[in-house]
Amino acid sequence: MKKVLVLHGPNLNLLGTRQPEIYGHETLEDINNGLYERAALEGWDVSCRQSNHEGELIDWIQAARLDGTAAIIINPAAYTHTSVAILDALNAFEGRVIEVHLSNVYKRESFRHHSYVSLRADGVIAGLGSQGYRAALQAVMSQPG
Ligand code: CA2
After folding, report:
1. Which of 13, 58, 63, 137 could staple 89 via S-S, CB 3.0–4.6 A?
2. Nearest C-alpha to atom 10 of ligand 1 is from which residue?
3. From the CA of 103, how far away is ligand 1's center (Å)?
4. Which percentage of the chain shows pLDDT scores above 70?
5. pLDDT tops 80 at residue 144
């Protein structure tokens, strides 16, 4: 079964509880459940994980190099704008990488306009809310390699 890893960065565990005007009303569990359902329909194995810790995200990216994961969908949250370490880990991963942001980072503060992860990402989706994750999954499942 083809595998895709979905990674959510720091504070995304708070989705649906605060700042719904920016990040929407869905919880992380709602988003993940939608992805599990869609992946199952197409016979894909999706694994969704969230961490507030940079090193833990890196450990999961490194594990994906070795376990046959075809693609990583990642919302690195604030680490998007700071983490060379996550970029380095993604550079060592050979599958597809899609970067997702719930908000349109380009309409926001200028420090959100730069992404280290975009230097590696094959595709970037921003500003579509939770629909961005579903679009990323659809893209991966229709063109895994
Ligand atoms: O738009 C996105 O998806 C972001 O990756 C979200 C990050 C932000 O630092 C990026 O610039 C853009 C922040 C995630 C914080 O999520 C929260 C959700 C609910 C309540 C509070 C924070």
Report:
1. 58
2. 77
3. 8
4. 99
5. no
Task: Tell me the pTM.
Answer: 0.97
Q: Is 81 a catalytic residue?
A: no
**Ligand 1 in contact with 103 (CB < 6 A)?**
yes
Q: Which residues contact 25 (CB under 8 A, 6 or more apart)?
A: 16
- Beta bridge partners of residue 102, listed in sequence order: none
Per-residue model confidence as pLDDT tens digits over 24-83: 899 999 999 999 999 999 999 999 999 999 999 999 999 999 999 999 999 999 999 999
Question: What's the burial of 47, exposed, middle or buried (CB within 10 Å: 0-12/13-18/19+)?
Answer: middle
Q: CA 129 to CA 133: how far, in whole Å? A: 8
Residue 100 and residue 87 in contact, taking contact as beta carbons nearer than 8 Å: no
What angle do helix axes 28-41 and 131-142 make, rounded to 10 degrees?
Answer: 20
